[in-house]
Amino acid sequence: MLKIEPGLLIWTIVTFIVLLAILRKVAWGPILSALEQREHAIRSSLDEAQRARQEVQQLLTQHQQLLAEANRESARVLEQAREEAQRLHDTLAAQAREEVQRLREEARRELERERQLAIQDLKSATADLVLAAAGHLLKTAVDRDSHRRLVVEFLDRFPEGLH
Predict the structure, then answer these.
(1) C-beta separation of 46 from 104 below 8 A
(2) CA distances from 92 to 33, 85, 95, 97, 158 (A)
(3) 8 Å CB contact between 70 and 77
(4) Is 53 exposed, middle or buried (0-12, 13-18, 19+ CB in 10 A)?
(5) Sign of the C-alpha dihedral computed for residues 16, 18, 21 and 27 taken in this order
(6) What does DSSP assign to residue 27?
(7) 58: CB partners within 8 A, 6+ apart
(8) What's the number of CA atoms in the CB half-sphere (13 Å) around residue 77?
(9) Are 35 and 118 in contact (CB under 8 A)?
(10) In the prediction, which pLDDT does 29 show?
(11) d(CA 93, CA 25)
């Protein structure tokens, strides 16, 4: 029959908390740094999209100046130029909106994927460290797979309490 020893249980909990604090200090920083670098790259992409949109706006302004010159030439040329300008404006505006939306969606998906990878890496690293520490402290005959399964089950439920 399994006998629970309070002293061993307390030391196991203390060891787990200490390891968790060490992991938070050692592993959490590099993971957050990588996420911040990715966020910076995504922000740069969004800035590039904004610059492209400004260039489109400048082109539209130049085109409107050409329309004013065409107005002075003749009424027929004016009508044709207005139709062309509207088509160009609609196309460029639609393309700019689509590109900005695509970049935002891509950035959102990438951030979510990176976040999930970071959480999974943290869980895996924590499971390995806790398993090693618990095995070393307990020096029991329980196999590595059983330890790992128990730790992974705990860690899968752990973030739920943080949210």
Answers:
(1) yes
(2) 37, 10, 5, 8, 49
(3) yes
(4) middle
(5) negative
(6) T
(7) none
(8) 9
(9) yes
(10) 81
(11) 47
Short-list 52, 53, 60, 64, CA closest to 89: 60
Question: Please, which pLDDT band fits residue 156 given cuts at 50, 70 and 90?
Answer: confident
The residue type found at 33 is S
Predicted confidence (pLDDT) per residue in 119-131, tens digit: 888 887 777 777 7
Is the distance from CB of 96 to CB of 57 less than 8 angstroms?
no
Which positions ≥6 away from 46 have C-beta within 8 Å?
A: 100, 103, 104, 107
> Which pair of structure tokens corresponds to residue 161?
């309490």
Alpha-carbon distance 116 to 123, whole Å? Answer: 11
Question: How many CA atoms lie within 13 Å of 152's alpha carbon, on the beta-carbon side?
Answer: 10
pTM of the predicted protein model = 0.35
